[in-house]
Write a structure and sequence with these properties.
- With about 130 residues, the chain is of the alpha/beta class.
Length: about 130
């Protein structure tokens, strides 16, 4: 299986000026754990995750004043659609993160998460068990 088989193609894209509260509301409404942050003026493509928002709140910062730009990870590891799920999982383990932005021709086309990988592997295991030996 490949990343293109597991990734979510409905990508939440926000700008660097979105507040953390706005980002959290958008993420919660879509039931997702990460937003792609497009900052064409500075860092390009970054990612803001639920963990970034949680860390800010835990530090006592105001989610109505803090912006995505301040909390975005900009040194992102990107996946390609044709990566295997093992390659994606290995990158996540090495980097200590749970989401990868998927780029095709330098454009974000999806996000793959640990949950997506587990879902695909679980489905493959169930199919394999259903095939008589």
């Amino acid at each position: 299986m490949h990343v293109k088989d597991a990734m979510s193609t409905v990508v939440l894209t926000i700008g660097p000026a979105h507040t953390l509260r706005q980002a959290a509301q958008l993420m919660a409404a879509r039931r997702i754990g990460a937003a792609v942050v497009l900052d064409n003026d500075n860092s390009g493509i970054g990612i803001l995750t639920e963990r970034d928002i949680l860390n800010s709140l835990g530090a006592g910062e105001n989610p109505d004043r803090e912006t995505a730009q301040t909390h975005t990870t900009s040194d992102v590891v990107f996946a390609a659609p044709d990566w295997t799920l093992d390659e994606a999982a290995d990158a996540m383990v090495r980097g200590g993160f749970r989401h990868l932005i998927v780029l095709d021709d330098h454009e974000p086309v999806g996000v793959v998460s640990v949950r997506d990988i587990i879902r695909c592997r679980s489905a493959a295991t169930k199919r394999a068990r259903a095939v008589p030996a």
